[in-house]
Amino acid sequence: xxSSNPALAKLTPSSTNTYGEPGWxxxxxxxxxxxxxxTRSDAMTVDGVxxxxxxxxxxxxxxxxxxxxxxxxxxxxxxxxxxxxxALVLGLVISFxxxxxxxxxxxxxxxxxxVLGLISEVFENxxxxxxxxxxxxxxxxxxxxxxxxxFRVIRATPRFTKGLMGALIAAVxxxxxxxxxxxxxxxxxxxxxxxxxxIFSLAMIVIGALTFILDFDVVERGxxxxxxxxxxxxxxxxxxxxxxxVYLEVLRLLSYLRGRE
Length: 261
Prior knowledge:
Layout: H1 46-70, H2 76-97, H3 102-126, H4 130-150, H5 158-183, H6 195-225, H7 231-259
């Protein structure tokens, strides 16, 4: 099973396995996908992934708060653009290079924190209390999806995965198309406070929330396989990507709703 999250998807040695077929996560697979990887003391654990995820969140929060509080207004634009480009480059390197280096992952968290901090500052200046609301909603969504996964209310079946991947591709195409059209002065309404924009943001939040199901599944299978614990950094990075996505979409949606008051 391959995760929709580009980072956690890399934890899956084969993207062609389906339920009922011999795969890296099944006892009868005929060997580990990673030579020499078996159950051992230095293997990746759920607790290890949780700890690394919390550490990255803490670093991201600290860098965001620092940028929000101490960065001079005249440097905000440069820091936002530089942080966004740096985070994008590191994110792509980590995702497609399957990097487990904690320095790279930490660097991404710090740069992403600067970007989120500055964006959050803009929204907070317009709508007091909106950042706290967005954070609370994001945390709530994450734990709701975790509970739904834990009790197998929603399962990462092949049909579920294909449907969600289709939705993700459609969302990316729509957002890119909207951006290109905006360069020519065409407003599709996807990113406005109107009905279309609200519906689109809701859809993005739902899609982002559902990707957690695939990510939980991949982490669970990676732990069962006994991947080296360094992959805990990779898994934490992937979860962080999902949290950032959901937070930004929730922040945008709340701004639409608050703007109508």
